[in-house]
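F.,

This is the one I mentioned.
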């Protein structure tokens, strides 16, 4: 029986798992330091109080159990990979041997060293822990104003550094949440100032002009304060300094201005790009190690024209499927196929029940786009939920599994 180890319960890792789990003669071990899969695409809804905590995670142990006896979950922290011996090294415990390896350990927020103070005074939102930290701060501020007349009259500010997809969605969802709270409680409540800072002349750089125009109008209508055309140069306690000399005050800062590969990925003895992602060949293999593949944000993904693919859930899922299919092809001594990842459009949440869907050929705005975005999320989440439910039943029947 061939043993495939997947490091990372990410979007790419789980798609690879789904392909490999049904193959006879294949054993799969999913390794992750966290016992859950975090649905990052719904993390902003969590921050804005639109969904409960448990709706943004899927338990990996139950999920793996749902695939049957040839799939198992290992709760461990991967430290290194011995490519020659074909073993994964952990911070604790014995090494794990593999016949094939998929590295799907993802990425983390990139806190640029050139921006003094950025790492000390801001938070990323790539992880569940960071999302909960922001949600906690936000709700505590609202509670203080509800209970205390003095605090109720105070204004407070949240600064979001980075006006790409993540920054725009967070700003819109949080401002819409506050606006709803303000109206429903009829209090003399101090204003929430959400500052969205981007170095480009517009938000959502590179997207269709009509998408940029519509998203900008939506943010302004909600009350988000936009600062475009000037990068953050320095962050101190409670204030960020921009290139143009402007000083933006804040009580809490989120940074979404970039990603970098996870520390584990960066530490591997292989070729990396400038942000630490693993360089892969057109089949998603690490050069020199035909049995090792990298997917999602852990890999430097490119399309067939050699253009870098944006780090989205879409690209991660496609690369996970392609890597798994190529592993099966390699086992069967068939020709591997070139991974041709295509972004089939974007869905952008813009607070409340407003969204934008851009397919590249046409665009949908407003409530219809919101329904479409929710349908996309459910199509991804529902099969995993059902499989995890099946696995939970198996674990209860056989608790030693």
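My design for it:
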């Amino acid at each position: 029986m061939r043993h495939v180890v997947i490091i990372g319960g990410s979007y790419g890792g789980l798609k690879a798992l789904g392909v490999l789990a049904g193959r006879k003669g294949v054993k799969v071990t999913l390794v992750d330091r966290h016992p859950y899969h975090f649905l990052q695409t719904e993390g902003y809804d969590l921050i804005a109080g639109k969904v409960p905590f448990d709706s943004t995670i899927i338990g990996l142990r139950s999920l793996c159990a749902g695939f049957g006896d040839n799939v198992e979950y290992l709760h461990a922290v991967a430290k290194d990979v011995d490519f020659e011996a074909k073993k994964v090294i952990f911070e604790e415990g014995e090494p794990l041997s593999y016949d094939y390896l998929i590295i799907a350990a993802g990425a983390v927020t990139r806190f640029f060293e050139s921006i003094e103070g950025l790492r000390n005074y801001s938070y990323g939102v790539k992880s569940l822990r960071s999302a909960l930290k922001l949600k906690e701060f936000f709700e505590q501020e609202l509670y203080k104003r509800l209970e205390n007349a003095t605090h109720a009259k105070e204004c407070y500010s949240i600064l979001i550094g980075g006006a790409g997809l993540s920054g725009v969605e967070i700003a819109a969802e949080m401002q819409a949440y506050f606006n709803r709270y303000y109206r429903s409680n009829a209090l003399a409540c101090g204003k929430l100032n959400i500052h969205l800072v981007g170095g480009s002349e517009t938000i959502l750089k590179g997207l269709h002009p009509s998408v940029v125009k519509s998203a900008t109008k939506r943010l302004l209508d909600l009350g988000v304060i936009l600062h475009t055309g000037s990068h953050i140069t320095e962050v101190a306690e409670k204030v960020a300094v921009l290139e143009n000399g402007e000083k933006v005050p804040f009580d809490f800062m989120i940074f979404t201005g970039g990603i970098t590969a996870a520390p584990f990925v960066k530490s591997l003895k292989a070729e990396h790009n400038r942000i630490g992602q693993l360089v892969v060949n057109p089949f998603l293999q690490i050069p020199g190690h035909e049995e090792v593949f990298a997917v999602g944000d852990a890999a430097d993904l490119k399309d067939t024209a050699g253009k870098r693919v944006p780090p989205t859930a879409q690209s991660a899922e496609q690369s996970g499927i392609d890597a798994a299919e190529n592993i099966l092809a390699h086992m069967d001594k068939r020709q591997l196929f070139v991974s041709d990842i295509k972004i089939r459009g974007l869905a952008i949440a813009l607070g409340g029940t407003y969204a934008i869907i851009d397919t590249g050929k046409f665009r949908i705005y407003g409530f219809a786009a919101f329904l479409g975005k929710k349908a996309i999320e459910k199509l991804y989440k529902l099969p995993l939920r059902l499989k995890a439910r099946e696995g939970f039943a198996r674990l209860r029947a056989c608790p030693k599994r």
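The longest helix spans residues 367-397.

Talk soon.
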